[in-house]
Amino acid sequence: MVSAEDLKKKYGLKGDPKEGLIAATLGFFVGFAAVALYGPTAKEFKDVMGLSGTLLGLLVAIPQLTGSLFRIPFGAWVDKVGGKKPMLTLLALSVIGMAGLTTLLILYYPHGLTMEMYPLILLFGALSGCGVATFSVGIPQTSYWFPQKRQGWALGTYAGLGNTAPGFFTLLIPFALAALGLPGAYSAWFLFLLAGTIVYAIIAHDAYYFQLVKKGVPRDEAIKIAKQLGQELFPSGKLVDALKISAKIGRTWALVALYFTSFGGFLALTTWFPTYWRLFHGFDIKTAGILGGVGFSLLASFIRVYGGYLSDKMGGERTAIMSYTLVLIGAGILTISTSFAPALIGEILIGAGMGIANAAVFKLVAKYVPEAVGGASGWVGGLGAFGGFVVPPILGAFVDAFGELGYARGFIVYVALALMSITISLILKKRYGHEIH
Fold this sequence. Notes:
single chain, mainly alpha, Growth Hormone, Chain: A, 22 helices, membrane, transmembrane
């Protein structure tokens, strides 16, 4: 019998599952940092350009537009060509966006940065936000490398580590800003993104099946060889059908609404909290970055792992009801609070609730849409993340309407979203909880 190493040498195959996981996680981490593109530095843009609350909200949200909408088509593309080409395409678009933004800041900040440049800054933000969509590429890219029995560990590691990027960047950007100034901070970020993209291009390899197909090996033979090398999952070519099937199932859209609140909310508040702490509570940029990065973003990212454990133990419906109740309480406190201590408690509660809920929703996807899990995951992940783009301008509109107090009153949006999500979770539990297996 031919050994695995001999097979790899015969067909010129590269990589292994460990290297595949490292590459996918690197690509996701590097690209996903764009969630925090404008949030920590929003005050600087607001001051020099004279932005209204609504325009400020749109600015911090714009990376989430491409970052959410590109998830579905680029995730589907992986089944055709493997993960490397889609990931590199998204990272390259992000590099172009960061290059444009950095050049603009070097040439025109601060005095030349006027409202006339606002559309261009939005465009560069949208391009940079393409990196946010790497999540949907890295998930199947990682899955194809690992056997079924190690999927949970591999995907948990991938999502857990990569998801921390916005929190770390929310923490680091204020210190870079203080040391290097706004153009220097974004120049450093651009170099990090460029270096990460280059390293990914060098170390990333598609799973064996995709390498074999690219070398001209027929599909059936490629599957046979890849199976000998340990690969268990293969593209079925049915994702478009799965998207169509899942779109016709009402439960899919219920889960989209839940994820809109939790993950869309996570993306939105990752960008909004640094602005909230600076402009409403008057903290300096470093303190605001720590409060937003640790108190919310990193907390929500790390507690997502515990959310998966709770969902296994308590069931996804009960976990969702509990977690959205935490969001409701946290949002309620933030809405009425004007002092620091209650606001911090509210932030911690809303962050914990969103992190746990993110895990609970995906626990329910396989249960409620078993006939089209891939398609449902695409709708839930892509359209749910769209909340990161929709909500910040609404929060900004509250600032325009109520003045400084609007930074607090805007959290009423999350009170409403949490109530909606609790209601949906209760209906799902009552109507379908015991019917679907």
